[in-house]
């Protein structure tokens, strides 16, 4: 087993432990057997891409973040040219991860651009109890958080704890551009 495989195994065990989950709990959440999870965390079995995707989804991580941290450890600085940018092919929604990833810190900062007329719906929170501080940089945004609606314009800041459904809609003629500070429970 390579050093990278051993570090991935260690990170997976650390992520589960930080959630306070038993192997049985994680098995129930993922459909991966307790025995397989145990072997993965002990470094006796290399995970498949599907397994990694499933596990990372439970922890609110991406496979690329897990790999980057397993290879190098968490960085203190991510230059603008190296920040992760993701674009939704359906809506044109763009998300830039501004904060260097660190599994031991609870805060993250992201920048979002939602094109005019676009809407994003989330059926549930990726991490129940995730605290958001959304600061509008430009444009206008309608947000519905668990049944309560808000309309934000430049300079407005909305703070909420997400446990259920949310909806983001850009109704203006210009894109909605905003930053979100996320604080993990």
Describe this protein with a few key phrases.
185 residues; alpha+beta; six-stranded antiparallel sheet; four-stranded antiparallel sheet; 5 helices; 29% helix
Shape: elongated
Low-confidence stretches: none
> How much helicity do the residues have?
25-40%
SS class: alpha+beta
Mean pLDDT: 87
Radius of gyration: 18 Å
Tell me how many strands there are. Answer: 10
Measured by DSSP, the beta-strand proportion falls in 25-35%
**SS element count, helices:** 5
Strand order of the largest sheet: 1-2-3-10-5-8
Largest sheet: 6 strands, antiparallel
The termini sit apart by 34 Å
Helix and strand element order: HHHHHEEEEEEEEEE
Characterization of the model:
There is one protein chain. With 185 residues, the protein is of the alpha+beta class. Helix content is 29%, strand content 31%. The strands form two sheets. A six-stranded antiparallel sheet has the order 1-2-3-10-5-8, with no helix packed on it. Strands 4-9-6-7 form a four-stranded antiparallel sheet, with no helix packed on it. The longest helix is centred in the first third of the chain and has 17 residues, at 3-19. It starts with a helix and ends with a strand.
SSE blueprint and pairings:
Blueprint: H1 3-19, H2 23-30, H3 34-41, H4 49-59, H5 63-72, E1 85-87, E2 94-97, E3 107-114, E4 119-122, E5 130-138, E6 140-145, E7 148-153, E8 157-162, E9 166-169, E10 176-183
Antiparallel strand pairs: 1-2, 2-3, 3-10, 4-9, 5-8, 5-10, 6-7, 6-9
Helix pairs in contact: 1-5, 2-3
